[in-house]
């Protein structure tokens, strides 16, 4: 047994709780429960209120209710067939008889005693002459209690067993140390952590559940906020690489196009960061086509003109090639020296590039993961730019950053996230938002149609190809398993042989290796493939100006933000572009979502709607952004509490930057961020 009075709950293994042991602990491990802290923060998913008893007459049809009743006949056992035994007995609520049937529950049947009082919890089925309950939960009146917790369970570990172990642990803990001062609890109207933890599991009355939830949600969001702010503080290193601000205007004057107000604002924010006492850590977040690359180019130009080097890392070779081509074009006519380093770069050229980097003969290097290899060294790296934040682990960004002396960091993302949540998701970065599109960029026309329109759509695509354009066809798979993959290949072959016989068609699917995907995308970018069929979301950021049609089959299977990203693959050239959403869904909600796509091209509006209808879990995907998993809080539903926690975290850190007064809270912060990529 553990001495809970002096134990660290984050490190106490649950196998030492009375009644668990090594073998049973493995069953808890499958639920993600390893420590006592994991156990007591494994909260009920719902509750059963056994305190509000109703009579059989008052029991609503089809609803789960608690009935106080006395057992009036002994249990009769009947073997229906091998492996199926029925147990029947009768109860009375004082007015009516209830016929109770239990299936294969020998333990419960043998524990029942005639004339004892019980609480029956389940659905009452009524006819003109009788009332019955099938497989109700039954407990002795004196031990039934009020509100019962129901936990997420497994086949070998039911809710009642989990509750029993949690009760054992809580009974053994004298008092859960509070992480907050009494002053903070009063200011934000919070109960103690000990009260909240005990009441969330075993409420003495129903109204205490919300009081407990409020404290635990606040606790979790505050822990998250403090962790992110401390992380940001760690990254606020001394800026020894200050740049010349005048050079950005010099670069802007060289551009053959006018920058938007949002681009100028973002460039100004970056320059201000790079001239401040701390090194820059900034996210440039903009919708598809908002001009993030031009912002990065302006800041890189100023960095180079101030005597330093820059590195830009892209997640795939095709994106690295694309950035290299774009930047080479933007820097045409200047003496900025650029180079490309990827896995495909020949060995001799790699050696030459690495030597030139070390000598300072290359100003800007663009590449893939090849940039973070140990033998890639810089003379003086001052700016690291990474494309598409969520595609890189924090470690990879940090590895590249370590190649300089506290270099500035810029992260570019085309994933629209509402600002309030952006402050959380990217809590370790300052944020610049590009919320306007460059003039002259044509709005993409979006249509929602049924599969009955296929012939007309194919004719439309062929006309576009004949005019020199290209098309994407995205077919969603429920799961990219073997059978789905076969159907995707068959679908592509059918299109090639029956529809696009005279055109080159390429296939992109999730089971392909990165190099195979790059080869197909490169062929499409060069115009060698006219129709690209894809079962996966087409690489974000890939720029094919001739692609003017995006056809998405079974569009209702995608989230709105994914549809918006796909739509952004077209409309990058001078020709009018189209996004065609095909769906035969009869669901009102699916139709409504697709109409949102038709009605707006604004990614931030779409993200707002997507969040409201699907919630953050589906919106962000599985740990897409490396954010710690939340147990009880919901970033969208608990937005008001989130704002309170932001305020509270800033106040706490301004008074006590190391949180010396909050050792238990520091333990929880370390534990929360230990389990993530941060």
What does this structure look like?
Helix content is 39%, strand content 18%. The chain is an alpha/beta fold. It has 4 domains: 1-46 and 159-174, DNA polymerase, domain 1; 52-144, OB fold (Dihydrolipoamide Acetyltransferase, E2P) (Beta Barrel), CATH 2.40.50.140; 246-434, Rossmann fold (3-Layer(aba) Sandwich); 445-600, 3-Layer(aba) Sandwich (Rossmann fold). Strands 2, 3, 4, 5, 6, 7, 8 and 9 form an 8-stranded mixed beta sheet that branches. A 7-stranded parallel beta sheet has the order 13-14-12-15-16-11-17, sandwiched between helices. The two termini are 34 Å apart.
The total count of strands amounts to 23
Could you tell me how far the N terminus lies from the C terminus, measured between alpha carbons in angstroms? 34 Å
Helix/strand class: alpha/beta
| Share of residues in helices | 25-40%
Secondary structure tally, helices: 22
Q: How many domain units?
A: 4
Strand content: 15-25%
Evaluate the radius of gyration. Answer: 31 Å
Q: What is the averaged pLDDT score?
A: 86
Poorly predicted runs are 621-625
The major sheet is characterized as: 8 strands, mixed
The CATH topology of the largest domain comes to Rossmann fold
Characterize the quaternary organization of these chains.
single chain
Named at the architecture level, the CATH assignment of the largest domain is 3-Layer(aba) Sandwich
CATH class value of the largest domain? Alpha Beta
> Looking at the structure, what is the overall shape?
globular
- Supply the CATH superfamily name of the largest domain: P-loop containing nucleotide triphosphate hydrolases
């Amino acid at each position: 047994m553990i001495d809970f009075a002096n134990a660290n709950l984050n490190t106490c293994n649950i196998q030492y709780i009375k009644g668990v042991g090594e073998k049973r602990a493995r069953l808890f491990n499958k639920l993600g429960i390893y420590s006592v802290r994991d156990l007591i923060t494994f909260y009920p998913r719902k509750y059963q209120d056994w305190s509000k008893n109703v009579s059989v007459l008052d029991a609503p049809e089809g609803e789960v209710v608690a009935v106080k009743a006395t057992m009036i006949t002994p249990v009769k056992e009947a073997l229906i067939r091998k492996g199926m035994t029925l147990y029947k007995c009768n109860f009375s609520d004082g007015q009516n008889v209830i016929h109770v049937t239990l299936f294969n529950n020998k333990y419960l049947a043998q524990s029942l005693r005639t004339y004892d009082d019980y609480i029956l919890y389940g659905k009452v089925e009524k006819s003109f002459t009788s009332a019955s309950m099938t497989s109700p939960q039954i407990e002795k009146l004196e031990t039934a209690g009020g509100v019962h917790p129901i936990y997420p369970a497994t086949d070998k570990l039911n809710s009642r067993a989990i509750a029993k172990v949690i009760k054992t642990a809580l009974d053994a803990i004298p008092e859960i140390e509070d992480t907050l001062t009494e002053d903070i609890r009063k200011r934000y109207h919070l109960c103690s952590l000990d009260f909240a933890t005990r009441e969330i599991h075993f409420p003495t009355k129903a109204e205490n559940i919300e009081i407990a939830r409020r404290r635990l949600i606040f606790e979790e969001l505050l822990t998250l906020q403090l962790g992110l702010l401390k992380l940001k503080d760690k990254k606020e290193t001394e800026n020894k690489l200050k740049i010349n601000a005048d050079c950005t205007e010099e670069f802007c004057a060289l551009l053959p196009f006018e920058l938007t107000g949002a681009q100028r604002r973002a460039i100004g924010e970056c320059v201000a960061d790079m001239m401040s006492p701390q090194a820059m850590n900034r996210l440039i977040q903009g919708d598809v086509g908002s001009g993030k690359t031009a912002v990065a180019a302006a800041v890189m130009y100023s960095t180079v003109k101030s005597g330093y080097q820059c590195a830009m890392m892209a997640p795939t070779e095709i994106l690295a090639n694309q950035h290299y081509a774009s930047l080479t074009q933007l820097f045409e006519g200047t003496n900025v020296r650029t180079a490309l380093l990827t896995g495909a770069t020949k060995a001799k050229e790699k050696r030459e590039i690495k030597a030139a980097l070390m000598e300072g003969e290359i100003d800007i290097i663009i590449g893939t993961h090849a940039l973070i290899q140990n033998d890639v060294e810089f003379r003086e790296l001052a700016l690291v730019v990474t494309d598409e934040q969520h595609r890189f682990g924090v470690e990879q960004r940090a590895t590249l950053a370590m190649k300089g002396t506290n270099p500035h960091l810029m992260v570019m993302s085309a994933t629209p996230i509402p600002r309030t949540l952006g402050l959380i998701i990217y809590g370790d970065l300052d944020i610049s938002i590009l919320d306007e599109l460059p003039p002259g960029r044509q709005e993409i026309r979006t249509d929602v149609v049924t599969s009955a329109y296929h012939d007309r759509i194919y004719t439309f695509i062929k006309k576009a190809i004949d005019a020199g354009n290209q098309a994407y066809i995205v077919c969603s798979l429920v799961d990219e398993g073997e059978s789905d993959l076969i159907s995707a290949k068959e679908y592509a072959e059918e299109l090639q042989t029956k529809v696009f016989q005279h055109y080159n068609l390429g296939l992109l699917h999730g089971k392909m290796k990165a190099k195979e995907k790059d080869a197909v995308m490169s062929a499409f970018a060069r115009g060698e493939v006219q129709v690209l069929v894809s079962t996966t979301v087409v690489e974000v950021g890939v720029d094919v100006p001739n692609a003017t049609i995006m056809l998405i089959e079974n569009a209702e299977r995608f989230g709105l933000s994914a549809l918006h990203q796909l739509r952004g693959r077209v409309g990058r050239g001078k020709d009018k572009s189209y996004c065609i959403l095909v769906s035969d869904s009869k669901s009102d909600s699916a139709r409504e979502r697709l109409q949102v796509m038709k009605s707006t091209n604004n990614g931030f509006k779409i993200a707002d709607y997507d969040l409201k209808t699907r919630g953050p879990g589906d919106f962000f995907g599985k740990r897409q952004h490396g954010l710690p998993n939340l147990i009880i809080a919901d970033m969208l539903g608990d937005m008001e509490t989130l704002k309170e926690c932001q305020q509270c975290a800033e106040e706490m850190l301004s008074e006590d930057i190391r949180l010396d007064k909050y050792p238990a809270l520091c333990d929880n912060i370390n534990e929360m961020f230990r389990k993530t990529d941060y």
